[in-house]
Amino acid sequence: MPPVLGVIFDGIAYGMLLFLMSVGLSVTLGMMNFINLAHLSFAMVGGYVCVVLMNTYGWPFFATLPVAFIAAAALSVVLERLFFRRFYNAGELPQCLITIGVVFVSIAAAAYLFGTDLQPVHLPAYLNSSIKFGGLDLAVYRLVLIAIALAITILLVVTVEATRFGAQVRAAVNNQRMARGLGIDVERLFSVTFALGSGLAGLGGALAINMLGLDPSFPLTYVIYVLIVVAVGGLGSIAGTFAAAMLLGVADMAGKYYIPALGSVLIYLVMLVMITWRPSGLFGRR
User: Fold this and answer.
1) Rounded distance, CA 260 to CA 264, Å?
2) In a domain, 285, yes or no
3) Calpha distance 129→46 (Å, rounded)
4) 82 lies in a domain?
5) Considering just the CA atoms, what is the radius of gyration of the chain in Å?
6) How far apart are the C-alpha atoms of 165 and 52, rounded to whole Å?
7) What residues are paired with 130 via a beta bridge?
8) In the predicted model, what is the mean pLDDT of residues 102-110?
9) In CA terms, which of 134, 158, 200, 250 is 20 to 30 Å from 112?
């Protein structure tokens, strides 16, 4: 049985991945009322970009991360302009149908281009090493992952709380009609926010390969985890998404270590308790 602190460390690292892949969906759901079940297709794009650049062109791992972000964001802009924006006011069922359709198209495209096997990723030796601290062996890769996610979290909070763009996003989340009345271009704000959220998903997908693996089923396998994080954290809340990702990441890892017979059921039990306690989420406003 692993030490409690080791389980917490692994859970935090896993929670950081969930946060990166969830925060964009939380903001777009809370701001745009758009149910984007294809959000993790952009994470898969980021993962495949990372794999191709590393394995085919010999790029260093860290050099692939900005490209994964940009590629996922750019693809989201194209899909948002061509398809998604036509469904903003169409209701929940059409939104679910169009986005789940994109998921299946992305799965088929990935299987055609890369095959159905797990993609190999060859990280530098120092990222596969570990360091001893307090009697624990801490994986360097997970330490780096936590550091990157914390830096992005701080950057997001500063952007939302201390910039003009963040003020416009908050205004649009709180009251779209009033935001339009104040001269805010809500549609353009939607596009930029959608691209940023999808780019973060792409970055999360690239970072997740070493822990979660990557194959064409990735969007369907992990979309439920992302939706749980968004529901527990509360729509449109960065702090809520972060808190929910940490809670669920640690709970899921503890369940797999200490109660293997339950597998990943514990994360669903935590969700049921949290949603029953706070139906709008930890920091949700509605």
Assistant:
1) 8
2) no
3) 24
4) yes
5) 19
6) 34
7) 139
8) 96
9) 200
CA angle 153, 284, 229 (to 5 degrees): 60
Instruction: pLDDT band for 1, please (50, 70, 90 cuts).
Output: very low
* Number of folded domains that form the chain: 1
For 136-170, write each residue's pLDDT tens digit.
788 999 999 999 989 988 988 888 778 888 888 77
Cβ contacts of residue 256 below 8 Å, gap of 6+?
263, 264
Compute the average pLDDT of residues 262-270. 79
Residue 255 vs residues 14, 16, 42, 248, 250: alpha-carbon distances, Å? 13, 17, 28, 10, 8
Report yes or no on 282 lying in a domain. Answer: no
Residue 175: helix, strand or coil by DSSP? coil
What is the domain-level CATH number for residue 117?
1.10.3470
Give the H or E element holding residue 137: strand 136-139
CB-based contacts of 99, cutoff 8 Å, min separation 6: 35, 36, 37, 38, 84
**Lowest-confidence region among 78-82, 123-127, 201-205, 209-213:** 123-127
The verdict on residue 284 lying in a domain is: no
Q: What is the mean pLDDT of the chain?
A: 88
What phi, psi does 120 have (nearest 5°)? -75, 145
Burial (CB < 10 A; 0-12, 13-18, 19+), residue 248, is buried
Q: pLDDT at position 226, please?
A: 93
What is the residue range of 262's domain?
Answer: 4-277
Single-letter residue type at 150: L
